[in-house]
Amino acid sequence: MKHWLYLLVGIFSPTLAASELPLNMTQGVTEISNQVYDLHMTILLICCVIGLIVFGLMFYSMLNHRKSKGAVPAQFHESTKVEIIWTLIPFLILVGMAVPATSTLIAMEDTSDADITVMVTGSQWKWHYKYFNEEIEFFSILSTPRDQIDNKAPKDANYLLEVDKPLVLPINKKVRFLVTSEDVIHSWWVPAFAVKKDANPGFINEAWTKIDKPGTYRGQCAELCGKDHGFMPIVVEAMPEAEFDAWIAGQKQAATEAAAQAEASLSQTLTMDELMAQGEQVYMARCAACHQPNGAGLPGVFPGLLKSPIIQGPVGDHLDIVINGKPGTAMQAFAKQLTAQEIAAVVTYERNAWGNDTGDVVQAADVSNFEK
Amino acid sequence: MNTTTQDTDATLDPVSHDDHHHDGPPKGIMRWILTTNHKDIGTLYLWFSFIMFLIGGAMALVIRAELFQPGLQLVDPNFFNQMTTVHGLIMVFGAVMPAFTGLANWMIPLMIGAPDMALPRMNNWSFWILPFAFFILLSSLFMEGGGPNFGWTFYAPLSTTYGPDSTALFVFSVHIMGISSIMGAINVIVTIVNMRAPGMTWMKLPLFVWTWLITAFLLIMVMPVLAGVVTMVLTDKYFATSFFDAAGGGDPVMFQHIFWFFGHPEVYIMILPSFGIVSSIVPAFSRKKLFGYSSMVYATASIAILSFLVWAHHMFTTGMPLAGELFFMYCTMLIAVPTGVKIFNWVATMWRGALTFETPMLFSLAFIILFTIGGFSGLMLAITPADFQYHDTYFVVAHFHYVLVSGAVFSIMAAAYYWLPKWTGHMYNDTLSKWHFWCSLISVNVLFFPMHFVGLAGMPRRIPDYALQFADINQIVSIGGFAFGLSQLLFLAVVIKCIRGGEAAEAKPWEGAEGLEWEVPSPAPYHTFSTPPEVK
């Protein structure tokens, strides 16, 4: 009952609607998003007024010009004057709408003089962010646990709108996005910025934003991109410049450490149990979406890994497809997404899980040697 | 005198004794398979369309059941995508378009005083290939890997490189649908141009005939484009071409340009005949001539021409240049002008008429209001900066369902109630039909209106699961969906009851109706107007 009330209130009171149940467009945290919101509200209002007049006349006619009330039909059925009037007036209203729309659009398309540039790359079903001029890049993947999606665990507040590593941006800086894709078309959308840009494979699109307020802003992929289109959210953390600079420094530090760790892992030899445990984690996060948690795949769409010739065959072929992917299919090249250690673990896992008892153990050094 | 001459107005041509005709239809199934009679073929189209409407509707209910709650409950995401895709394809190509073709077959010869369609054998053919097209499409759902799962818009490369193995079946079924539509359109054009009764000049044509004539031209122009684009998808997927693959010098965005060059006129193909229907029904139950007949004709033609200049408004987020965005925004906004003229003309027709509210009128009035709401959201979508926020959300889903369900489908319902007495010779059950109307009207709004809200709030379309803040509204929407689906069974009941019997219908059951179709008896005899009537 309460919700119906909200719906009604929502229709008549846009300000309330923005604050209570999500019923209206996000006003957003950029100058552009506010302009877009105002444009939306203006046009909505014009439509409502026209609607009230037209429907009002219709209902007046329906109530008063009834045969049952003894109405006698009039004879008029033509008037060039009236036709011209109701062609011209809507035309002028449209011109009135087009003026602010045009100026907003021109501002939205002006990507010049950006302070920082971020490359946004979509792939099935994750986003990759790369900061230009900084040696920082990472994937951003849905972090909602599978159990919540399968209704086995209670859903938390940001269900389906949370990622492992959000994109971090400074406020009050003009950020330019270069948007592209590695496979199918995706669309990078953050409602709070009024930025929605398609990620087209083989082409690069431009967009920009300048965030006014620090905060966490969430969006989703907006173009159907296959099975898990509904499961590739976008999360942006906006922070003051000083914090952002600290974050950048931290990331660089972390990258150096990770590189050192990767180097160290090459000389380590892990036990089968250790590899299996790590491999299962990697598999569930990166592989299970297509090949399924039980390795059975989706027949006709994604190949199963049980008793598959690649799993049963030489380790080299298996490493090859994981590292380099299979062009022209959804199988991505994981060389730049996973460390040698992770690839070793997941390959070991696949070769020994679900009754694939090959007994093969792959170490990080094997992966590294194969890549060479 | 044989039946043939009784069918026509015998006083017009007393020497018409054409004894070569058979008296009535042959019996049994062969009547329907071999028929070249426009009324039989019209009936086949209409039943086919209704069956497809129920199948496509059942798929929509699978979608709504899954979306009733957040989380994955009933179907996996891949099957969910197949449901959204095939639901769209079936409703567009299997339900709405064949329904209009069925109405055209039944009514155009009756309205222009022709004995049949101009090309009756092709007419048979254009219907009978359709069941095969949809058999192929539906059977692909049972293939390993499933049917088409890339949306009814089948954007490349999701439908090419990344498409399921069944894509070839999808392509062939769309080819067959296209051939059927083109043959139907040729038939309509040839019939209207050549077979009008003496005195039926262009500006005396009923608006349903006018709107269908223009629709038929749109079909002939854009169906080959659709055939071209599906063929390119086919060769990209199976024969290593790269029309839409950047790695081979192609462009995935070019797919969208070609598709929407077909796709946008296509949406007018699905609404122009509705305008014709409503322009017949509103004057009949207002007992007053249609206001601004000639401006209605010109408005229809303007909408048709403009429909070729607006395709890229479906693609504002693809990264078009500013000049392109502005051009397509302005052209799209311009369509509101002739559309507005139509709505104003209908209201002016009602104004100071003597209105009654039989079921066809109720559906037509609901059409005018709800289609206008869909028009408003269309205007909002035309505004490029705002479209960046609306695009690919439930706001778009709400928009096109308002124009296609409470628009096109409601007008088809209105047409069915309006002409059922002519088709069956019986009046339909009035009470039941009113129940059908009110249940449909309420549920269609519970179903589609709240979609505007979740769309504005940021829920993307074509997702099988959603964030928690969208849960309440999705629940309401799903309830509306099931209510709307069930309401349509009432329609089935009304139609079957009406075919089986009921109060006998007069030749002209509606007091204010005008047109040649009301001059033949009800039910319309198997052969009508073997001798052309004279139109004064």
Automatic annotation (TrEMBL), chain B:
Q: Which Pfam families match?
A: COX1
What kind of membrane protein is this, topologically?
A: Multi-pass membrane protein
State which pathway it belongs to. Energy metabolism; oxidative phosphorylation
Q: Where is the signal peptide?
A: none
The Cytochrome oxidase subunit I profile domain extends over 32-536
* Region (Disordered) location: 1-23
Q: PROSITE patterns, from UniProt?
A: COX1, COX1_CUB
Could you tell me where this protein is found in the cell? Answer: Cell membrane; Membrane
| Catalytic reactions on record | 4 Fe(II)-[cytochrome c] + O2 + 8 H(+)(in) = 4 Fe(III)-[cytochrome c] + 2 H2O + 4 H(+)(out)
Q: Could you identify this protein by its name?
A: Cytochrome c oxidase subunit 1
- Which organism encodes this protein? Shewanella corallii
- Name of the gene encoding the protein in the UniProt record: ctaD
